[in-house]
Amino acid sequence: MKYRFLLILFFVLSLTYGQVADLGKLSRGKFYSSAEIKDKHNNTRGYFLLYETDKVAKETYQLEYILLDENLTKVTNGFITEMKYESWFFTAKKINVEVVLEGRKLLIGFADDIAGEEYFKRYRILDIASNELSDPFIYNKNTLVKNPEFDRKHSNVASNQSEEITFYNGVGLMAHSKTMNKKQGVTDRRIVRYDDELNELWTFKYDQIKAKKLTSLSYLNSDNEVIVMLNHYLKNGNVSKYLNELSVTFINSENGNLIKEVPFPKDDYTYRVVDCAIKDDRIYVMGNMSEKTKEGFVHDSKGKGLYKFVFDKETGELLDKKYLLWENLLNNKSITINKNGVVKKEGKMYIHNMLMLDNGKVIAVGETFLNKPIITNNMYLFELAEDFSVSQCFEIEKFRNKFSNTNAYSSTIKRYGLFDFMDYQDLGDDEYLFFLNDNEKNSKNRKKTTLYGIISYSDGEFKRQTLNLKTETSTIFATSAKKGYMLLVENFDEETKATELRLEKVNF
Amino acid sequence: MKHSLLLLFFFSFFYAEGQTSFSPLDTLSRNCATKLKVEYVKKFKNINNSREYETSAQKNIIKEIYGGLQEDFIEKIDDNNFICDGDINGYLNSLMNEILTSNSIDKDIYRILLSKDSQVNAYNTGDGTVVVNYGLFLAVDNEDELVFVICHEIGHQFLDHLKKDVEAYARLSTSEEMIKKTKEIKKQKYGKASMATNLLKNIRYQSYSERREKEIEADSIGLVFYRQTKRSPAAAISLLQKLDVSDTEKDSLVVEDYKKIFEKGGFVVKQRYFEQEESLFQTYTKDERFNTDSLKSHPDCSTRITLIKDYLDNKFLESSTASSTGFEEIKRNSVYQNLFNMFSAQDYGISLYEALKLYKHEPEDPVLKNIIYLNLVKIYDSRKNYTINRYVPKHDNLNNTKSLNRFISFISNIKMTDLETIINNFKS
Question: Which InterPro entries match (chain A) (predicted)?
Fold first, then answer.
């Protein structure tokens, strides 16, 4: 307990009156955006916030960033100067941030938000050990440019923004260039690894502008030995079209050499990858599959089941394939599902996550839904044994959300955050927490209780509890927080009462 | 009301059974708050009606400031922040009267109140009221030190520090120079906020610098008043020496203490209850915008001690005047009463933490055992309702001690069924 031992005057000059109050208004910052700092186990480790503090020149602003730790204690703050697009027609109202953590480095992506779309992407790295923020850098035309000269000219948009830069787990800073432009002399796609000083370590080139079939690589997982990428082939031409051809590409993290490319089985299915785990000398690629489609995207109404492919980490050889077909669950007592993965009276099954446990089991997180109109229904947690048979199916009844006059594929429903599943936390030792929203979306009806579902998985057992946040004087939002905790944000109706942020330990 | 009476009963019950002679002050009754509110609403009305202003612009600002301060004070009364116990209030009044009489100061405007706040603190509200926090009784060792604190606060009132501060602020805010500067800043196309911030920063530094000077003035005149009481001058110095080290936690709880306290009736304290996820962050840096030294509202204690010693020409008695029996009784009860105050203010976490630190040395103490039980019950309920962070502080690697963070981990990580077991073990 820290006591403050003061003999004070009652009056504290708050500088909020008269002319000085005008100064206060002028000096006040404007909130832009924030991002949660998560580790590779999906646990929150801190928060990054960005504010505008001043306009210092045309389209140029002084910004303040604030770094909070997992307990919401301020770690550091600092000031940077950034440009933001403004014209008579469109204006970026704010600058968005996204953060990726690797070790003790935090990569921060900045982007102008123009009508909900992001432009002029650039990056900085915050060294968590020293709290020092780097100068900005971008990856553009196959070059990493440090401290680039920015402008916001229409004619120069392409030169003023970065291609994707991120941290790969256990590897470090990576740039992924997907743009090919003959006029600019950029004729291949590539993945480039950089060291802490932003020096290039290796380049993996994987596509040529003239290729008949293009590769579309997306990151799945990595460690200090291997990078696992998913490839979805496209037919090259005036309009690129996706093909029902997927493969897993393994790249050596140390030197960037291709280890192996393994095509997905040429069978009656189309595959979607949900999660990828690297454990010891094995790589597990897991997801769901549907009846075969032309462009290689799973069919929501014709789901066939779940799969797990096991690869040798060193060679990339496919060692094992396991399937769970929905038709094998027709007689399951815990779920009434048909062979197309449609649950009776609830709808199709969307798989949010497939989590690999240390004991070889997998937990698949599913939520039922309908496309037209969009309806989200109950959730299901499947515990899958090593042979991929269902050892447990845990149903979570929740509020049925209906969005009138809508029609969307599951991928779009997920992208726009319309599902009720919120997030999960990996507590270690094969213990997990799953959070879900159990409320009518956008409801302002105070008579309704505000409910959040928490499902714990501990000692191989699922348990559900409902967090009832009913209040007549405030509105409470819940979100996942540091390991084992939820962050409750309570906004009171009474204007003078400050918003209350509470970190509450989840009981289980 | 029913709840309040029950609570007092719980504490008082051990008065008969236990070794200590503790009976808590009634801090929960509304009667006192009702009377106090009537008194202060009337007082504020009279003060506001008799106040004079240089200009109408200043009048608006001054009225606004006092309005806010008075509203806050009435809110404290409504929240039952003040203790109305005949004996203890009578005792504090006698000390104030001693100071005022020995210095021939008109007693009419002065009033002393006791807040149940556990923070070691006292303040002057500028209308003649001196508020002493109950927590102060934990810090002072003798009556002389308490009298010096009151002298210091009377000093603020005597020198009209609050009034002068408010008027100076109103003058500054309505001055031609400030209006001109603000207009100039508003006219700027770019860099407006930085210019306004810099100007505000200077005003703030200046204001804090003046406040530090006022503290020294209050020490100085407080010492003059204090010497007239013929009490030992050593108290002024010993008090400030205590202030200097007051941020240091005097005791702590380690895992072994938890084992000693809670391992009863088959309950075993597990190491994982104390686990706290290691933070990514090890370095916390200061706000770049402000020089924190310039924002100190008080001068360093060492500076104040030197000034007082100089003033006393380094001639001061080492021993204190004998404290009255009234002081001794309050001091004896202050530890329990403070725990009770924190409990009634719903600071269950800190009340429990402080109680456990005492209980580890006095495992047979029935009052401590009881307050531990009551706090545990409240904490159990709040964990169940997901409101624990309202009543128990959160982990804070910058400001909390390791011991406090360990306690927070214990309270947060312990299984609810285990919490039930230890509650039962503490139930009498």
Answer: DUF6770 (IPR046661)
**Structural contact between residues B149 and B133, judged by C-beta atoms closer than 8 angstroms:** no
In B, minimum Cα distance to A8 occurs at B123
Task: Give the model's confidence band at A9: pLDDT under 50 very low, under 70 low, under 90 confident, else very high.
Answer: very low
Domain that holds residue A504: 423-508
Please identify among residues 480-499 of chain A the ones whose CB lies closer than 8 Å to any CB of chain B.
482-484, 486, 488
Probe site for chain B from A23, A38, A80 (most B CB atoms < 10 A): A23
Residue A302 has pLDDT above 60, yes or no: yes
179-218 of B, contacting A, C-beta below 8 A: 179, 182, 185-186, 190-197, 199-200, 203-204, 207, 211, 214-215, 218
Each residue of B318-349: pLDDT tens digit?
A: 666 788 888 998 988 899 999 999 998 999 99
B168 touches chain A (CB under 8 A): no
Residue A467 lies in a domain: yes
Q: Which helix (H) or strand (E) holds A216?
A: none
C-alpha distances out from residue A494 to A355, A499, B106, B341, B373, Å:
43, 10, 43, 27, 34
State both tokens at B25.
């002050």
Nearest-CA distance A167 → chain B (Å): 17
Question: Are A216 and A234 within 8 A, CB to CB?
Answer: yes
Q: What is the pLDDT of residue A18?
A: 58
**Residue A34 falls within a domain, yes or no?**
yes
Closest-CA distance of chain B to residue A164, Å: 25
**In this structure, how many other beta carbons lie within 10 angstroms of the beta carbon of residue B300?**
14
CA distance B327 to B242: 18
Report yes or no: A433 and A456 within 8 Å, Cβ to Cβ: yes
Cβ atoms of A100 and A118 closer than 8 Å: no
> Alpha carbon of A114 to those of A97, A149, A153, A306, A410: distances in Å?
14, 21, 15, 39, 26
pTM (predicted TM-score):
0.89
Share of chain A above pLDDT 90, in %: 71
A392: confidence class by pLDDT, cuts 50, 70, 90: very high
- Residue length, chain B? 428
What 3-state class would DSSP assign to B335?
A: helix
Distances (CA, A) of A35 to A32, A66, A143, A350: 11, 11, 27, 26
Q: How many CB atoms lie within 10 A of CB A16?
A: 12
Q: What ipTM does this complex have?
A: 0.86
Residue with tokens 């003023």: A160
Pick the closest to residue A173 from A230, A108, A233, A228 (CA basis). A108
A463 part of contact set with chain B, CB < 8 Å: no
Render pLDDT for A398-441 as a digit per residue (tens, 0 to 9). 988 889 899 999 999 999 999 999 999 999 999 999 999 887 76
Strands, DSSP E only, in B199-254? none
On chain A, the residues whose CB falls within 8 A of the CB of B65 are 11, 17
Mean pLDDT of A113-124: 94
Task: Look at residue B160 and tell me whether its pLDDT is greater than 90.
Answer: yes
> How far, rounded to the nearest angstrom, does the alpha carbon of residue A48 sit from its chain's CA centroid?
15
Partners of A82 in beta bridges: A61
Cα-to-chain-centroid distance, residue B136: 8
Q: What pLDDT sits at residue A13?
A: 41
- Asked whether residue A64 is assigned to any structural domain, the reply reads yes
Give the A:B interface size as CB pairs under 8 Å.
Answer: 222
Q: Which of A164, A38, A31 is nearest to A99 (CA)?
A: A38
Of A122, A153, A177, which one is at a domain's C-terminal end?
Answer: A177
Residue A132, beta-bridge partner list: A127
What secondary structure does DSSP assign to A321-368, as a single string?
Answer: EEEEEGGGGTT-SS--B-TTSEETTTEEEEEEEEEE-TTS-EEEEEEE
A329 within some domain: no
- Give the pLDDT confidence of B396-425 residue by residue, as tens digits: 999 999 999 999 999 999 999 999 999 999
